[in-house]
Design a protein that fits this description.
The structure holds 2 protein chains of 2 kinds.
Chain A lengths: L1 E11 L5 E12 L4 E5 L6 H8 L7 E5 L7 E4 L11 H7 L5 H13 L15 H14 L4 E5 L7 H18 L2 E6 L2 H7 L2 E5 L6 E6 L11 H13 L18
Parallel strand pairs in A: 3-7, 3-8, 5-6, 6-7
Antiparallel strand pairs in A: 1-2, 1-4, 8-9
Chain B lengths: L3 H12 L11 H26 L7 H13 L2 H33 L1 H16 L2 H12 L3 H25 L3 H9 L4 H39 L4 H10 L3 H30 L4
The chains are: A alpha/beta, B mainly alpha.
């Protein structure tokens, strides 16, 4: 389980005025829970992940349950693969060097239909393939906690849907706690057990919504769409940043 | 020694775009072109020598036969080996120290500001001055010789590697931190691969600069090596000897470049 309390996180801004990114944020996740964090852009979603992932330690607050080495997987907005390492080596980079990890990396990549390109360099792959490699890299360590920062942004809708299905399958098999940041409400509703809404900066959780729709679900399932419009009707002010038509996936 | 300074000054500009192009299908063609160009040079030399008909420019055949004689007497291999040893030592020293400082300066802006003036000074001190001072301070020995050459090369290595260290991709370093990778793995698989093109650029330009400086060092204060031999031939106006040694050494350096540095570059860049 994961407990996040961030009293205050600020950046020294360009003008000398400190910019408060997060303030009074509390977030809790059970082990194995899939939590989506949505909020308008600039509300500190990425900052939150960086703090939880230990990339940013200059913060007033504490994170417990994030675990130690080899417990955290991280997927960024870009695939961020090492261009000089082959697909397989990119996945192995983050693992311990045991034979079991090696086998798991291969199995993961083959299951994601990357068996043909194990020895190819990332520069030769399409955007969707690179994301799949990044996803395999995140899961090869069987992380207790998986942090995802809009990992499927700027992909076409079918590719993104396929990746989401892969993510859910891997998550269900692995039992990781997932913290998934997105500005796309429909994506969040399609993936999450629970959606947490952040306010505009300084960000804090303003609504904590369990999603009980049956799995598997897609971003354009009737249930998801119904919940989406119900939320827009109930919390117009809250979702102002997310609710614009066109904020749905595939449209941006 | 005039050759060294403008080369050093022109280096940073040349190095901002390290030569990273792959050479696929026309490698054979290129090799052919290289050979023809070399042959053309020898022919030109023969023609000019024939026209001048003067002892100050012996024809190629004379120089090559002189080279063979020097090789036969074991004098050339011995002096060449000694010079090569100094080149390798000072090259390794310059590259190691220069890379370490380059990384540090590229990484810490304050340190960079602090040492930038020294660096500019180092880049602009003529090689001859460093050599003389090293001989005066450390005596006429091999340590002084190697140190002098390394000191000449270190600033240019620093400048190149610093540029590379500044260009290191923070996003990729973040991946390493997010996954808590062990230090050694971060260095060898995430950090250094980003520096390789810059280190290679420094190595290639370094080799050509260093062997020229080594000859001057030998001419001024050693009693063996190609530089020393050239000085002896100069005293005796033995032009064939001078050209024989020069060509032999240039051939060795070209071989190192073609057999070691270029394949290494191709291997390190195969992902591009």
């Amino acid at each position: 389980m994961l407990d996040i309390t961030i009293t205050r996180k600020c950046y020294p801004d360009r003008g000398g005025q400190p910019h408060v990114a997060l303030s009074g944020l509390r977030l809790h996740a059970e082990q194995g829970e899939f939590v989506c964090v949505v909020g308008p852009s600039g509300c500190g979603k990425s900052t939150l992940l960086n703090v939880v992932g230990g990339l940013d330690r200059d913060v007033d607050g504490c994170v417990s349950g994030a675990g130690e080495a080899h417990d955290i997987g991280f997927m960024f907005q870009e695939p961020r693969l090492m261009p000089w390492l082959s697909v397989l080596d990119n996945v192995l980079l983050v693992g311990d060097c045991t034979a079991a990890t090696r086998r798991r990396a291969r199995e993961l990549l083959v299951a994601m239909e990357l068996g043909e390109v194990l020895d190819a360099f990332p520069g030769r792959l399409s955007g969707g393939m690179c994301r799949r490699v990044a996803l395999a890299r995140a899961f090869v360590i069987e992380p207790r906690l998986l942090l995802m920062d809009e990992p499927f942004v700027s992909l076409d809708a079918p590719t993104a849907n396929r990746l989401r299905a892969m993510l859910i399958e891997l998550w269900q098999r692995c039992g990781s706690t997932v913290l998934f940041v997105t500005h796309d409400l429909r994506e969040a509703l399609a993936l999450a057990d629970r959606v947490c809404f952040l306010s505009a900066a300084p960000g804090r959780v303003v609504l904590d919504l369990p999603v009980t729709l049956a799995r598997p679900r897609l971003a354009d399932d009737a249930g998801v769409l119904a919940l989406h419009s119900r939320l827009l009707a109930e919390h117009p002010d809250l979702l102002a940043g997310l609710a614009r038509p066109g904020a749905g996936e595939g449209d941006d | 020694m005039k050759g060294a300074t403008p080369e050093a000054a022109a280096l940073p500009a040349a190095v901002t775009q390290p030569d990273l192009r792959a050479r696929p299908a026309w490698r054979h063609d290129e090799r052919w072109l290289r050979f023809v160009s070399l042959l053309g040079f020898v022919v030109l030399w023969q023609v000019v020598a024939g026209l001048l008909h003067d002892a100050s420019l012996p024809p190629p055949a004379l120089v090559f036969s002189r080279m063979l004689a020097e090789i036969g007497s074991a004098a050339l291999p011995w002096h060449l080996g000694v010079t090569l040893g100094r080149v390798v030592l000072s090259f390794a020293l310059a590259l190691a120290i220069g890379a370490a400082f380059g990384v540090a300066l590229g990484h810490w802006r304050r340190l960079d500001l602090l040492l930038d003036g020294w660096l500019v000074l180092g880049l602009n001190i003529p090689a001859l001055v460093t050599i003389i001072l090293c001989y005066v301070w450390f005596g006429l020995n091999d340590v002084a010789a190697v140190v002098a050459v390394a000191l000449n090369k270190i600033p240019t290595v620093i400048v190149v590697v610093r540029e590379g260290a500044r260009a290191v991709d923070r996003n990729l370093m973040q991946v390493a931190r997010a996954y808590r990778l062990p230090r050694w793995r971060v260095l060898t698989r995430v950090y250094l691969p980003q520096l390789y093109p810059w280190l290679l650029a420094a190595a290639r330009s370094g080799l050509s600069l260093i062997w020229k400086i080594v000859l001057v060092v030998e001419l001024l204060g050693r009693s063996n090596g190609v530089g020393f031999q050239l000085n002896v031939f100069f005293q005796m106006f033995d032009i064939a000897g001078i050209l024989a040694y020069t060509l032999a050494f240039a051939a060795v350096v070209l071989t190192i470049e073609a057999a070691v540095l270029r394949p290494l570059e191709r291997r390190l860049n195969r992902w591009r």
